[in-house]
Amino acid sequence: METKAENACFGGTQGVYSHRSEVCACDMTFGLFLPVEAKDGPVPLLWFLSGLTCTHENAMTKAGAQSHAAAHGIGLVFPDTSPRGEDVADDDDFAMGQGAGFYVNATEAPWKANFRMWDYVTGELPALLGEHFAVDLSRQSITGHSMGGHGALTIAMHMPETYRAVSAFAPMANTTDSDWGRPQLRAYLGDDAEAHARHDASRLVAERGFPGPMLIDQGTSDQFLDKLKPEALATAIATRRQEATFRMQPGYDHSYFFVSTFIEDHVDFHADALWS
Amino acid sequence: METKAENACFGGTQGVYSHRSEVCACDMTFGLFLPVEAKDGPVPLLWFLSGLTCTHENAMTKAGAQSHAAAHGIGLVFPDTSPRGEDVADDDDFAMGQGAGFYVNATEAPWKANFRMWDYVTGELPALLGEHFAVDLSRQSITGHSMGGHGALTIAMHMPETYRAVSAFAPMANTTDSDWGRPQLRAYLGDDAEAHARHDASRLVAERGFPGPMLIDQGTSDQFLDKLKPEALATAIATRRQEATFRMQPGYDHSYFFVSTFIEDHVDFHADALWS
C-alpha cells in the first residue's frame, strides 16, 4: 500500500492511499479520514460511496463530513467508484465503465475482468483497512450519493449484520426501472432479471428491508428526479413499514451543495448507531 | 451579468456569476453565497480571497464556509484570483500571471492591460454586488488563504473604513522578502520599492496596523513556510501591539484541509465584527 497524501484535518488525518486490488485486478485509490481518537485505538467507520464520474476525491473534499466525524470520533472511508486504468474496460457513456461501477460484481465481458466493486467495497477494502489502520470493523455504517446511495442501500440490505445504519443522498432508488440502472445492470450482469433485482434499492426494501435505521434525503429540484425515482423508494418504505426517515428537501438539487447541507444530519445519524 | 449556476445550500443560495469587468478588461467570474436572510433584506458580506492557481471555485467548494455563514446570516463572496482569457497575458510560472494576480494594480506591460485585481476587488466587484444582490456594503469583512491572505491583509490595512475585521489562513506575509512576492511585485509594479512595500502585510502592520481585530492561522507543517514568512508578521504584530490573534496550528499544512478545519473560527470571528 502506498501513501499518496496525509493532511492534518480537524485534529485527525485525511489520508489518500493506493494499493493493488486483487478483486479488481488493478491499482485502487481511496481516501480515509481518521479522527484523533484513532491514535488510542480502533474507531468506528462510516463508508461514503460516491456517484457517477466521481473518484475517491469528490466527497472527501466537498462534502464537509470530516468536521462532524471528528466531533463524534468516527472514521470515514471514501472508495473510488470503479476500477480504473488503461487496461480497464471503459465506455463513451459517462454512466458506464470507469467512474460508473454501480457497486456490482460484473459477470459479462469485458467488464467481469475488473468491475467487482461489490466484493471490493464489502470484502477486500474493509479487510485492508482493518489490517493497516485503527478501524473497528465491528462498528461500520454506510452512506452514499446518487449511484453511491444505490450502493449503500443495496449493500446494507444484503449485509445487515455488517452495517448498523444506512443513509443516502439522492440515491438511484429503482435501478431496474431507470435509464440510470437498467442499461448498466444489463451490461454488467447480462439478462438475468433476478440478478438485476438484487441491485435495486426499492425492490430490496419491498422484499427484505433493513433491520436498522434508514435516512434518505432527496432534493425537490434535483435535475435527475426522473432517473432517481425516489417515489419508488418512498412507496416501498411506507408499504413495508421500514424504519426510516425519508425527506424531500425543497429547492435542493443533485450537487455537493445539497450533500454538504445535510451531511451533518447523516453523520450524526450514523454516529448514534455506531456508538450505541 | 450572467448567472452560471445557482444551487440551494444551507437554506440559502450558492451562486456563480460572470460579468464584463471594465477594470480588468475581460470577463470575470465570482461565487456568491447568500443566506436565507437575504430574501428579507441586505446581509453583511465576508470576502474570501483565494491563493495561487485558484479560481472562484476552490474555496467555494472546499472550505466549508457556507454552513457557518448561514448560521450567522452573512453572505460570502469568492472572487477569482486574476483576470483570465486568451487575450490576457500569462506566464509559464504558476506563481505569475493568470491565477496569480497578487491583488495589485499592475503598472508594467504586459500586465497593466488587465491585472488590476486591487481595484476589481475593492471597487468594481463590491459595486456590482451592491447593485444586483441583497448585500449591505456598510458591513464588510475580509479573509483569504495564502496569496489571498496577503490580499486580505493588505487591502484591509489600506481601507480600514471598509472592512470591520481581517483574517488570513497561511498568508504570504512578507512579499518583499520572499520568492512568493518579490519577483511578482517587480513584474507587476516595476522597480518601485515604495509600491512593493504597500503590498507587504508585515510592513503594513509595522507602518500603519489595522484598527479592528485580526486573526491569523498558520500550520506548523506548511510546506511553504520559507516563502510565507509568518515570523515577519508575528514580529510586526507583537512589535506594534496590533490587536490580533496569531495561531501556529501544530501539524497542519497548506491545504484546504487546513482551511476547512479552522474556517468556523474565522467566520465566527468575522460575524462578531459584522454584527456589532
UniProtKB/TrEMBL annotation, chains A, B:
Cite the EC number.
Answer: 3.1.2.12
Q: Which reaction does it catalyse?
A: S-formylglutathione + H2O = formate + glutathione + H(+)
| InterPro entries per record | AB_hydrolase_fold (IPR029058), Esterase-like (IPR000801), S-formylglutathione_hydrol (IPR014186)
Q: Which SUPFAM superfamilies match?
A: alpha/beta-Hydrolases
* Coiled coil (residue ranges): none
Q: Which GO terms describe its molecular function?
A: carboxylic ester hydrolase activity; S-formylglutathione hydrolase activity
Superkingdom to which the source organism belongs: Bacteria
A single cellular component GO annotation: cytosol
Question: Which BP terms in the Gene Ontology apply to this protein?
Answer: formaldehyde catabolic process
Q: Which UniProt keywords apply?
A: Hydrolase, Serine esterase
Which residues catalyse the reaction?
Answer: S146, D222, H254
Q: Which family does it belong to?
A: Belongs to the esterase D family.
Q: What job does this protein perform?
A: Serine hydrolase involved in the detoxification of formaldehyde.
- What name does UniProt use for this protein? S-formylglutathione hydrolase
Organism per entry: Palleronia aestuarii
